[in-house]
Write a structure and sequence with these properties.
174 residues, mainly alpha, 9 helices
């Protein structure tokens, strides 16, 4: 672990240290440094781990450096800085987004939705597809796999059922 008065860990090729020794000797200290910088232990562990993964891929070259830990540390700090930039960009994007609010549904719309919920499913589907989705009787018949006469019947019955429910003030909640 790094302290204020502890010397930096120097593991180099001249000591015969291998990657596992470098990792064991410096992971915790680097993680603590990045934790202090990032303020999030999991993030710090992630960036240090990523830096070690990159070092492992280039270990033949990095092991010859005077201070391989310095290379890992630099990569970890660069990764942490990159994460800060990404987070800042994401926050700026979110701040620029406007929260859109939908208007409250009118009492008539609430009554219509309630009335639609009370009629049989086939009639409801036919009414919604015809009047709201603006599909023709033929299109609804193809979609539902029934004859056009069946769709016309559903529409007729659905309109009648809705008319009864919507004209009754007790059903509207007034």
């Amino acid at each position: 672990m790094y302290g204020a008065d502890s010397p930096p860990i120097r593991v180099g090729a001249e000591t015969g240290a291998d990657f596992d020794e470098l990792y064991a000797a410096s992971f915790q200290g680097l993680t603590l440094q990045l934790y202090a910088y990032l303020g999030d232990l999991a993030e710090a562990q992630d960036v240090v781990q990523e830096a070690f993964c990159r070092a492992f891929g280039k270990w033949k070259q990095i092991r010859r450096y005077d201070d391989p830990v310095a290379w890992v540390r630099r990569v970890a700090w660069n990764l942490a800085t990159s994460r800060f930039r990404k987070q800042k960009t994401a926050l700026n994007f979110l701040r620029r987004q406007r929260e859109e609010r939908a208007a409250e549904p009118s009492p008539d719309r609430v009554a219509l939705v309630r009335a639609l919920a009370e009629i049989p499913p086939q009639q409801r589907r036919a009414v919604v597809l015809h009047y709201m989705a603006q599909l023709s009787v033929a299109e609804i018949a193809r979609q539902e796999g029934v004859a056009e006469g069946t769709v016309k019947s559903w529409l007729s019955r659905g309109r009648a059922a809705l008319a009864g429910r919507l004209s009754d003030p007790a059903q509207k909640g007034f």
